[in-house]
Design brief:
- The complex is a heterodimer of chains A (about 280) and B (about 240).
- Chain A has about 280 residues and is mainly alpha-helical.
- Chain A has a single domain, classed as ABC transporter involved in vitamin B12 uptake, BtuC.
- In chain A, about 75% of the residues lie in helices and about 5% in strands.
- A two-stranded antiparallel ribbon of chain A has the order 1-2.
- In chain A, β1 and β2 form a beta hairpin.
- In chain A, α1 crosses α9.
- In chain B, the strands form two sheets. In chain B, strands 6-7-8-3-9-10 form a six-stranded mixed sheet, sandwiched between helices. Chain B has a four-stranded antiparallel sheet with strand order 2-1-4-5, with helices on one face.
- Chain B has a single domain, classed as P-loop containing nucleotide triphosphate hydrolases (Rossmann fold).
- In chain B, a hairpin with a 2-residue loop joins β4 and β5.
- Chain B is α/β, with parallel strands linked by helices and about 240 residues long.
- The chains are: A mainly alpha (about 280), B alpha/beta (about 240).
- The interface of A and B includes residues 166 and 177 of A.
- The complex binds adenosine-5'-triphosphate (ATP) and magnesium ion.
- Adenosine-5'-triphosphate (ATP) binds near residues 42 and 88 of chain B.
């Protein structure tokens, strides 16, 4: 009973993590940029959705995604692109920007947690024998699965995806082959930011939105990506499930050690397989 | 116009950090001809090719393609202007399939007057690649990877092909095949810069030759001249 419910909640949390980490991983893999605004976009997506909820749940989700995509495009164009090749400057720049975004959120939405009501038909629970699974969490899992499949199809089965992978393999040669790498970067950055925003918005009915949500989620996304392997979608999926399980059970069973049991697997994986579980071996 | 210049380098200087590699390099590639760029290890051949392709920026000097300067252009724009690079070490996209390596290089529309290549055309020239079309490119043999690198370059419908040691590390019969293909591409009207360590192989294919030594052009002439006067080759390249 405890295990089944815990596992279900882990998967629901993993679904949110995947939405956050998939874009983070793609951006990291493609551009070698650890985009530290990603956590802030997650939180901002949540806030945007709480403000747009008057127009309906679905519109609120779309608004969160679109707002973050737009902002992500600006960040890529005005900041990250200009710091091309200077990793430290990019890390510091995006980190600084994430503080600014968080501060503005605090100004606009104040410091109190805001929660978001799920649409009526997703309230309540599905009963299966003695178990009750909240419908909204089921919905999160379905959405994440859907996004995973869609992303996989785009990356693995389209020419756009092949160009992205080519740029990950050898950015210089991709450019010399006529692939518009910086435009691809912007597309991926917008897409990743939109996913983070949608993740934050979809998570709001469960986690609610509050100051500090960004800095709580960002290390988890980092963990997922490092565990799963940078730039690997399947890795992000597996990493999300692992971290979702460890995080959820860790908080229940060993709340005092929750950071230890979160980071320990990462340390072990890094020691044994530095490229992550599904990462590419360095060429 | 006869003797059209496809590619012109004019007093090009390239640096790696503080080390001055290319020193006032100037040469012309005539449309439809093969120019062999020869020189010892570390002479600056790859630096020259990468500078033309826009992978590194020259600190001074000009590169022009059919009379149009490509100064400050991005590698993408240089590719679109008609230059394709077959790089040293092949640098195919390892995690992509053979077909994907070709498809990502495809560009439409192409300005008129160019030979237009499609995946199927590449497979006609390189039947081996068709047999391996869905294999990950990283698992191909060296020779197959070289064919793929050439095919990928052709997919951009170039006017000028830069080939940086396309026979490096290949078995003799594959070297011969690469040579045959270079001849075919020349017949199609492509202008080619061929960097080679195999002097005899290069002289057989080339119309013109320039020799580079520690970043400077030290000799130039037609291939026929250099075959006649082997002292130049011996002085600058050592006996092969
Ligand atoms: N990334 C780099 N940083 C600094 N110096 C470099 C770099 N790449 C090459 N060089 C130096 O530039 C010079 C020219 O190198 P380049 O690769 O152009 O020679 P090459 O003629 O192509 O040689 P090879 O026949 O071995 O391919 C060499 O002295 C080399 O040591
Ligand atoms: Mg070289």
């Amino acid at each position: 009973m405890f295990w089944i419910t815990g596992l279900f909640n882990s998967l629901a949390f993993a679904a949110v993590l995947f939405l956050l980490a998939a874009g983070f991983s793609l951006i990291f893999g493609l551009m070698r940029v650890a985009n530290l605004t990603h956590g802030a976009f997650f939180m901002l997506g949540g806030y945007l959705a709480t403000s747009a909820i008057g127009a309906g749940f679905w519109i609120a989700i779309v608004a969160a995604g679109a707002g973050c995509a737009l902002l992500g495009g600006l960040v890529q164009h005005l900041l990250v692109q200009r710091l091309a090749g200077r990793e430290l400057a990019q890390v510091l720049g995006t980190l600084g920007l994430s503080f600014i975004v968080a501060d503005q959120c605090l100004l606009i939405w104040s410091g109190d947690p805001i929660s978001l009501a799920p649409p009526a038909f997703l309230q309540g629970a599905a009963r299966l024998g003695m178990f009750a699974f909240p419908l909204y969490r089921l919905f999160l899992i379905v959405v994440a699965a859907f996004v995973a499949i869609a992303l996989w199809l785009v990356v693995e089965r389209t020419t756009l995806g092949a160009k992205i992978r080519a740029a990950v393999d050898d950015r210089e040669m991709a450019r010399a082959t006529g692939i518009p790498v910086s435009r691809l970067f912007t597309v991926v950055f917008c897409l990743g930011s939109a996913l983070a925003g949608i993740g934050g918005a979809l998570a709001a009915p469960v986690l609610s939105v509050y100051p500090g949500l960004d800095t709580e989620m960002l290390p988890l996304a980092l963990l997922v990506v490092i565990l799963g392997g940078i730039g690997s979608l399947a890795g992000a999926l597996i990493g999300s499930v692992l971290i979702g399980i460890i995080y959820t059970f860790g908080q229940i069973l060993l709340p005092d050690l929750s950071y230890v049991i979160l980071f320990l697997p990462m340390v072990i994986v890094l020691a044994v397989r530095p490229e992550g579980l599904l990462g590419r071996q360095a060429a | 116009m006869p003797n059209n210049n496809a590619l012109t380098l004019n007093a090009v200087n390239s640096f790696y950090g503080d080390s001055h590699i290319l020193q006032d390099v100037s040469f012309n590639v005539t449309e439809g001809r093969v120019l062999a760029l020869l020189g010892r290890n570390g002479a600056g051949k790859t630096t020259c090719m990468n500078t033309i392709a826009g992978l590194m920026k020259p600190r001074s000097g000009h590169v022009s393609v059919f009379g149009r300067s490509i100064e400050g252009a991005t590698p993408e724009a240089i590719c679109h202007s008609g230059i394709a690079l077959v790089p040293q070490g092949r640098r195919i996209f390892k995690s992509l399939s053979v077909t994907e390596n070709l498809v990502v290089a495809k560009r439409r529309p192409t300005p008129s007057g160019r030979v237009v290549w499609d995946v199927e055309d590449i497979f006609k020239v390189f039947p081996r690649l068709e047999e391996r079309r869905s294999h990950p490119a990283g698992r191909l043999s060296g020779g197959e990877q070289q064919m793929l690198a050439i095919g990928r370059a052709l997919m951009t419908n170039p006017l000028i092909l830069l080939m940086d040691e396309p026979t490096e590390g290949l078995a003799p019969q594959i070297v011969a095949e690469v040579g045959r293909i270079i001849g075919q591409l020349r017949e199609l009207g492509l202008s080619i810069v061929l960097v080679e360590q195999h002097t005899n192989f290069a002289l057989r294919l080339a119309d013109d030759v320039v020799i580079i030594s520690t970043g400077e052009i030290v000799a130039r002439g037609t291939a026929a001249d250099l075959i006649q006067d082997s002292s130049l080759l011996n002085n600058h390249l050592g006996v092969h």
